[in-house]
Amino acid sequence: MHIAQELHTDYIDTLTFLNVLNKKKEMTEVNLDFSNLTVIIPTLNEEKSLGDLLVLLEKNCPNCKVIVSDDGSKDKTKEITETFEGKLETLFLDRVNEDVHGLTVSVLDAILNCTTSYFLVMDGDLQHPPNAIPGFLKLLEEDYDLVAGNRVEIVGNWSFYRKLMSFVARLLGKLALIFRGRNRVKDVMTGLFASKTEIWQEYIKENKSKFILEGYKVLFDFLKTYRLKLKVGHVDYVFGTRHSGESKISKKVIWLYFKSLF
After folding, report:
1. What letter does residue 261 receive in the DSSP assignment?
2. Would you call 22 exposed, middle or buried from its count of C-beta atoms within 10 A (0-12, 13-18, 19+)?
3. Span between the terminal Cα atoms of the chain, in Å
4. Which of 241, 252, 206 lies closest to 7, judged by CA?
5. CA angle at residue 149 from 143 to 150, to 5 degrees?
6. Confidence band (pLDDT; 50, 70, 90) for 16?
7. Alpha helices, H only, 29-69
8. Mean model confidence pLDDT for the chain
9. At what angle do helices 251-260 and 160-180 cross, to 10 degrees?
10. The CATH number of the domain where 243 resides is what?
């Protein structure tokens, strides 16, 4: 697969394309042990993008482990995961019969199943770039406790309403963390983040009820309730367009987020 195809130049401008190439080159020069990283992908009917994502993961973070935490897909998401022919160690975590469904609880259950020192959470629709993962692992190996993705550019034609909602949600999230005196990240709405597994496993076992389990902003839920000081780092990335399927954003998701602010 050619690099130009891999990066989908139809939705990335020339400058961003060159920046991504340079960053990719820099990251490949760093000797990283990806076998100590688990990539968590919460899914719900992602058959059209999951296969491509697994291929890109194998190329950008070889020997990493992958947990596909599925919330009841009715398509071929499970089949694609279990028949993947690459060298990645993949686990399909089937949550179809669980009492509570949502992205947040899917991620938490996956974290509890991690056996590596570090984990990284990313979407399954290719909006989060796999070639950014080495940057996250590099900071974790430098003893950062939490590394959050920071969207420096959003590709695609977002409506005015969506841009406004995103701005307001980020602002209110920041204010909520400042008011509580908690650890903060540049983008409280990001779904791309990595951390030390031990920190989260210990916290989830005692505080799972503090999360909005049906919600979609697991990192924000963690930050607003976790009291200990963390060493926080950031990795800039370009938030891409959804390649297939439909956005999971709904009135219920928006309500659950605003509910979690208080």
Report:
1. T
2. exposed
3. 47
4. 241
5. 125
6. very low
7. 47-60
8. 86
9. 20
10. 3.90.550.10
Distance between CA 45 and CA 56 in Å, rounded? 19
Say which amino acid occupies 130.
P
Write the secondary structure of 126-182 as one string of H (helix), E (strand) and C (coil).
CCCCHHHHHHHHHHHHCCCCEEEEEEEEECCCCCHHHHHHHHHHHHHHHHHHHHHCC
CB 157 within 8 A of CB 236: no
- What is the number of domains present in the chain? 1
Token pair recorded at residue 185: 């990240």
Contact 239, 190 (CB under 8 A): no
Question: 125: domain range?
Answer: 3-260
Per the CB < 8 A criterion, the answer to whether 122 and 39 are in contact is yes
pLDDT for res 30: 57
Structure tokens at 121: 């959470």
Rounded CA-CA distance 214/198 in Å is 23
| Matching residue, tokens 């179809």 | 96
Give pTM, 2 decimals. Answer: 0.84
* Residues 114-125 pLDDT 10s: 999 999 999 999
pLDDT digits (tens, 9 = 90+) for 145-202: 999 999 998 887 777 777 777 788 888 889 999 999 999 999 999 999 999 999 999 9
Tokens found for residue 251: 């009135």
User: What's the DSSP call for residue 34?
Assistant: G
pLDDT for the residue numbered 27: 46
**φ, ψ (nearest 5 deg) of residue 157:** -95, 85
Using CA atoms of 244, 248, 254, 257 in order, give the dihedral in degrees to the nearest 10. Answer: -110
